[in-house]
Amino acid sequence: MKLSITALALALSLPSSHAFTTPASSVVPTASGRYETRISMNIPTPTASGGATPEEIQEAANNEPPPASFFELQRASVRAATQAINDGKTLLEVEFPPLPAQVLDMDDVSAYDVAKANVNLALDFARSFVSTNEIKGDVAVMLPDESECNIMLEDLKLESKPYPGVRLTSLRRSEEGDTRIFKPENLLIGLMGRGSGGTVKPIEGVGMYIIVVASAQELPDVEELYEQIKNPKEGEKEPVIVFYNLKLDVLRGDLGAPAFPGKDFQDRFLSRVKPVYYLRTRQYSRSVSQPPFIINFQGCLFRSYPGHFQTLLDTGTGRYRKVVGNDLRPALGEFKEQLTDALREEGAIAKKEEEGALFGFLRTGYKTTTWWEEEREDASLEWRT
Predict the structure, then answer these.
(1) What is the pLDDT of residue 68?
(2) What is the Cα–Cα distance from 165 to 132, expressed in whole angstroms?
């Protein structure tokens, strides 16, 4: 039996037992140079509207811990996006697990269940920006095409305008009055892979577009939308585009494959997307020469704009320990090595000199980055800062 919407909604209100840390805490350096989590009760997050200086906001974001619940997560992601918009950023990435870890691991949770959870979260995110100083106009949550949007509206029992100032619509839309169910021209456009044929258009009166449930093949439609809105009329603000839980790291790996956009799409467009709220967990295993012979460990790469990227090690107690802060987003290989170095410091695994250079090389190989994580001449650094 598939997970019901009620069960999903309940899951969204519950913190994962092993995914997030305590809400009223901060990660601070100790005298020894290591980091520890300290409890700080009822201390508000510094904001510009509250009189905080940019330095105080930066310091608070650098030490912000992962959220303890989805309620805290939504508040933090909205705060980070708001700060980025105020700093003039218009291409934003928000990325986090849409369901608690124990729910995602259930056998009867499908990709469509995850998609519905993402749409619900995106709608809540959108409501926070209606009629604000940052966004002038409505907020549109956009699925790739009309058929997906219609199915989602029916399954979630929603109207196309579920809340005041919020719309649930699609990137590709037919001309008004076109009620055909099957549109052969859309099939030809998809097979040719050369633009949307004019079906991607801005929406009058919308100041923020939130893109959900899009694949790598559908990302060029987002670029097509951006090209149409990036130069607003005099006196108007440029609309904001939010890439919401699209797993851009995974989608970038598809670029250059047959029937997918070329690798130049990363350099031309995706590299300009700023990760303003980013939370990705990773699990690893490592063999050792003594019992238990296999060590399982996991960590979290976390960023809340304008803070830096935090490499956090799971302590096994439901909390994370900050290992290092990175001004530039670390590659996945570098992130894993930072976690491994932290285990070496704790004596959980052998140090590099004890392990031997050859054995260490055989573990990691000569290449620890993917092609899009390397410095590329035509790429922006926005995605790493």
Answers:
(1) 86
(2) 11
